[in-house]
Sequence to fold (304 residues):
Amino acid sequence: MIDLIIIGGGPAGMAAAIYAARQKSDFLLIAKDFGGQMAAKEVEIENYPGLGKISARDLIAKFRAHLEQLDVAVEIAEVSRVDKIKEGFKVAAGKKTLESRALIIATGSAPRLLDIPGEKEFIGRGVGYCATCDGPLFSRREVAVVGGGNSAFEAALFLAKFVKKVYILERGPRAIADVANQELARKTGKVEIILNARILRVEGVNFVKNIVYQDAAGAEISLPVEGVFVKAGNRPASSFAEGLAEINDRGEIKFDCATHETKTPGLFAAGDVSEVKFKQIVVAAGEGAKAAMAAGEYLRKINP
Ligand SMILES: Cc1cc2nc3c(=O)[nH]c(=O)nc-3n(C[C@H](O)[C@H](O)[C@H](O)COP(=O)(O)OP(=O)(O)OC[C@H]3O[C@@H](n4cnc5c(N)ncnc54)[C@H](O)[C@@H]3O)c2cc1C
Fold:
């Protein structure tokens, strides 16, 4: 049994690992990938203190280099189950079962699906969740972005570099993205914002041909587009904490904000998977650092 397992390769998990390494903990970082949501960042990151503007790829590389510098032990695997055992936790990761005295869950969140007809059918054939990955395929075509938050506007800004036209479809009466992002989108001359649009379905034959929505007056509108990028919020990856931690109605893990500990002693949460209000890279990194320090305190308490 080791002291600590950290699950998650986003900024929260990587920062937790950096802090755990500096505390000389006997620990392991388990992650499906490195970077987490940062990897889906459409434009440069401009708000990580001290770095000015930096691409997501470069920021992820900097985090990884820091892990390597500290010789952090990493297991690339998906955690499917966590159980409480007498001395700590049993973690099923890929084909392995690992045990630790303390555990930090920093598994972040994943894009929320629209759950409408045609969405799953056309994934990879017009429907996508990552404009950076798939945007260039839609060069000189018309596409829709569903959602009105910052990630929707950033996707639209990225897409506007390639496509003929981007429709932003927001179900509410106003977009909630930062005013700066809304201004930038308007300035492209290619982005049209459609408010009060309730998305009904995606249609096509082999590939997407239309997105159909209901407008404020209840009329059904069919918009001819060849791409649909869904940016409708996130689902926290908290399912395996059920029973061990309290989960709020948004699916986020609840914790004591002073110690990051959940209702189960030795179980900590950090970053976007938790109920921390602000979901940002620097916040996730800070929360990961706090969770690692709190886990260190816990370990010293149970094993002075
Ligand atoms: C499009 C977009 C743009 C953004 N732009 C900015 C920005 O400009 N500035 C900013 O500050 N923030 C931005 N954010 C928010 C920021 O990316 C997140 O707040 C931050 O990445 C959260 O970090 P995290 O470590 O908590 O979770 P995540 O980044 O979600 O990382 C979670 C990690 O856990 C891993 N994981 C999940 N489940 C398992 C499992 N079962 N087993 C193993 N590993 C697992 C994932 O693979 C991933 O490595 C943006 C987010 C998006 C989506």
Q: What stands out?
A: The helical segments are 11-22, 56-69, 131-134, 150-159, 179-188, 281-302. The chain has a mean pLDDT of 94. The two ends are 17 Å apart (CA to CA).
